[in-house]
Design a protein that fits this description.
This protein has eleven helices and 19 strands. By secondary structure, the chain is of the alpha/beta class. Strands 1, 2, 8, 9, 10, 11, 17, 18 and 19 form a nine-stranded mixed beta sheet that branches. The chain has an eight-stranded mixed beta sheet with strand order 5-6-4-13-14-15-12-16, sandwiched between helices. A two-stranded antiparallel ribbon has the order 3-7. Bound molecules: flavin-adenine dinucleotide.
Length: 423
């Protein structure tokens, strides 16, 4: 049983091995990548496959950020419905992004297959569940648009939703057959293994403390070594620190916590029997899934509070009782949280911070497929592609208005929600 202080359940249960490889000495490379999550490792994998020499520097361990802590819902598209993405980005560019990210899960699944990544992949879809009649209206609008685009996304009746989830709590659901679930840490460690196999160097426990512009590229300083590179990709997303001035201030950081039960075996035979993962339409949404060992993993927005028998476990107990009145009391194994980078318009960004220095950032809690796909797009750019072909217009970094106030407000609202819903 993992101690409560581990990074996440996935850190303990991922079949793919972790590795530690600190940087000592001085390295020269084509591309330096800061951050060992999906974005950084996908950039490294695809850049190495295109013959570029690259070196990843991760401050802590592979998957230390969102990539080793998330729910594992391998979803298509973005957080926003496709019509809203087009409205915000403009017709042609928006349509291209929707199209490419619509195929995002299939691309991730193809990488998993190609590199034999052991990450508990399921392919039976995910369900966006309606918590209210208004939620159902939102899902209906999404379903109509995905149907117009020819995507295999289907609105489920109240009864079908109850059968697929094993709960009568929902007004309906949207089943996306393109999606699936995975063990997030298994996937990110597998990407690291694949990138190493393709020739990328990967160093862990190597926080980059300084980025210094040189006449022919960049010098990255760490405590025990340096890297000289022609180009740099910052793949630090919600875990960005003060390395590049203003980057941390360009998004609102919020937390999402999860609580995992012990393996429940046959007791949960009727809960998510086809193993879809779900999230709901509530403003403070929650998520629920099973893992390969038949744990239930339930989460919501905010930080995990209180450890064993603490507030988050009480919240989880209460929610499981509400959803599955016949389940009875369950024992919990662990809880954890991670940080999400929210942007005001809920769209990700690609910033050019300086010559040869880029960052894809701000996935708004939908980063497994987008991080992988944006990483591949960065590799295309580094291999000689055009900025105009990137998935988002390249922009300058701008501070998010009233970031501190918004972050404080959201975290307070999430904590109150946990207290209120644990009673
Ligand atoms: C709790 C939670 C649930 C989520 N659920 C889902 C989900 O179900 N589906 C989905 O698609 N998305 C989900 N997301 C979002 C998804 O996890 C992220 O968008 C994705 O992991 C981002 O990947 P990344 O590689 O860009 O960044 P990260 O995985 O966060 O990696 C950034 C890395 O940069 C490193 N770093 C930072 N500064 C430095 C430095 N100076 N030097 C060296 N290294 C540095 C950090 O240590 C970190 O490992 C969730 C996120 C969270 C937190």
């Amino acid at each position: 049983m993992p101690p409560p202080s581990t990074l996440s359940l996935w850190d303990e249960t991922a079949e793919e091995s972790d590795f530690r490889s600190p940087l000592t000495g001085d390295v020269t490379t084509d591309v330096a990548i800061v951050g060992g999550g999906y974005t950084g490792l996908s950039t490294a994998l695809h850049a190495a496959e295109r013959g570029l020499d690259c070196c990843v520097l991760e401050a802590r361990q592979i998957g230390f950020g969102g990539s080793g802590r998330n729910v594992g819902l391998l979803n298509a598209g973005l957080w926003l419905p496709p019509q809203d993405v087009r409205a915000k980005l403009g017709g042609e560019r928006g349509a291209r992004l929707v199209d490419i990210l619509g195929d995002g899960p299939a691309y991730v699944m193809s990488l998993i297959e190609r590199h034999q990544i052991r990450c508990e992949l399921t392919r039976s879809g995910t369900i966006h569940a309606a918590h209210s009649e208004d939620g159902l209206k939102d899902l209906t609008r999404r379903a109509e648009e995905w149907a117009r685009l020819g995507a295999p996304v289907r609105l489920l009746s109240r009864q079908e939703t109850a059968e697929k989830i094993g709960s009568h709590a929902f007004h309906g659901g949207l089943l996306d057959a393109r999606a699936g679930t995975l063990n997030p840490m298994g996937y990110v460690r597998g990407l690291a293994r694949a990138a190493k196999g393709a020739g990328a160097r990967i160093h862990t426990e190597a926080p980059v403390t300084k980025l210094i512009k040189q006449p022919d590229g960049w010098l990255l300083e760490t405590a025990h070594g340096t890297v000289r590179a022609k180009s740099v990709i910052l793949a630090t997303n919600a875990y960005s620190d003060g390395l590049w001035p203003g980057l941390e201030e360009s998004f609102v950081p919020i937390h999402f916590f999860q609580v995992a039960t012990v393996p429940l075996g046959a007791r949960i035979a009727s809960i998510l029997p086809e193993r879809q993962g779900i999230w709901d339409t509530g403003r403070i949404m929650f998520s629920l899934r099973r893992d390969a060992a038949d744990r239930l993993i339930i989460g919501s927005m905010g930080a995990a509070i209180g450890g064993a028998k603490g507030l988050s476990e009480r919240w989880a107990s209460r929610q499981l009782k509400r959803l599955f009145p016949d389940l009875g009391p369950v024992e919990f194994e662990t809880s954890w949280h991670g940080r999400i980078a929210m942007t005001a318009d809920h769209l990700p960004r690609i910033h050019r911070l300086d010559d040869g220095l880029y960052t894809p950032i701000g996935y708004n809690g939908r980063g497994i497929a987008p991080g992988t796909v944006f990483g591949k797009a960065m590799a295309d750019l580094l291999a000689g592609g055009a900025e105009a072909d990137l998935l988002m217009p390249v922009t300058d970094v701008r501070p998010e208005t009233a970031r501190g106030l918004k972050a404080g407000f959201y975290e307070a609202a999430f904590a109150v929600n946990q207290v209120f819903r644990s009673l």
